[in-house]
Amino acid sequence: MKSSDYNFTGILSNKQALNPNFYNWNRVAIRYCDGSSFTGDIEEVDPATNLHFRGARVFDVIIQELLGQGMKSASKALLSGSSAGGLASLLHCDKFRAFFPTSTQVKCLSDAGYFAHVKDLSGEYKFEGYYDQVVNLHGSSKHLNQECISKMKHSLCFYPQYAIPYVKTPIFLLHSTYDTFQVQNILASPQADPNGLFTKCKQDINACTTDQIQRLQYFRSEFLNALSVFGNGSSRGWFITNCFAHGQCEYQSKWLGNSSCKLNNKAIAEAVGDWFYDRSMVQMMDNQNVLPRYCNT
Predict the structure, then answer these.
(1) In whole angstroms, how large is the CA radius of gyration of the chain?
(2) Which of 36, 138, 147, 243 is most buried as measured by Cβ atoms within 10 A of its Cβ?
(3) What is the pLDDT of residue 3?
(4) Domain-wise residue ranges, the chain
């Protein structure tokens, strides 16, 4: 991929003022097109659509290609991703670590990838059915944590809260407790809200009623409960906001800028840098204002 084909901003920027900790790194953007966070591994081709479900093989081939071009000699490596890519960075973190010698410092960053297994407005787990279909369609089980799938339904191991206790490589979570994708597709999906009572609220928090705000706050509590398994050791870092947003590390205004979101007077870029280079333990959460709010776009 040519750099002109992709917007290298935020954590991918090559400008020191905009990305002080990683601007001079070799940066690679991997196109995401398999629909399973690179876990697909089916030999057969769908005869009706000619679709190939082989995302895990794509991931392996790309990494091997990069290793052959010099990445195997890297002193430091960071696997990061946003949304489905953020989920992939969690699911493949230990696998990515294994590609390098033990002397290489390897860590993973997940941005907006901590999809929570929580009840929706109907009081059920309707989004779980979507993960059931993904895992079955793509044959994902062989690329999920094997210890995890030995203990529970395989599709549950697609959820970070069940997979992450088995991940040994250092991980940083960048996330919002009011992640817009999760509000719109997990909490208040059309299946969970068939009458569309939450439609305006999930698109614009200024249109939410008092009761709906309370329901969003309850969702925040459930998300934080799902996050509790992450652990608080020094290798685990996090920057958790209350932004009504989805994805932050690839947007310059959110990553580092005059109006970027800050916790403890640190922007996201500064917090991630401190964590990666072991300058300090970084475990930051916005507990001052638990209401959803708009952040920079």
Answers:
(1) 19
(2) 36
(3) 47
(4) 67-124+144-285
34 to each of 1, 30, 43, 58, 60, how far by Cα in Å?
A: 17, 12, 14, 9, 13
Token pair recorded at residue 291? 């209401």
Residues with catalytic roles: 83, 179, 246
CB 184 within 8 A of CB 121: no
Query: Of 224, 227, 295, which Cα lies nearest the Cα of 255?
Result: 295
Q: Look at residue 108 and give its three-state secondary structure.
A: strand
- 84 residue type, one letter: A
Cα distance between the two ends of the chain? 26
pTM of the model: 0.94
User: Which is it for strands 266-267 and 262-263: parallel, antiparallel or unpaired?
Assistant: antiparallel
Counting Cα atoms < 13 Å in the Cβ hemisphere of 84 gives: 13
Alpha helix locations (H) across the chain? 55-68, 84-91, 93-98, 127-138, 146-149, 160-163, 180-182, 199-203, 210-227, 252-255, 268-276
pLDDT tens sequence across 173-218: 999 999 999 999 999 999 999 999 999 999 999 999 999 999 999 9
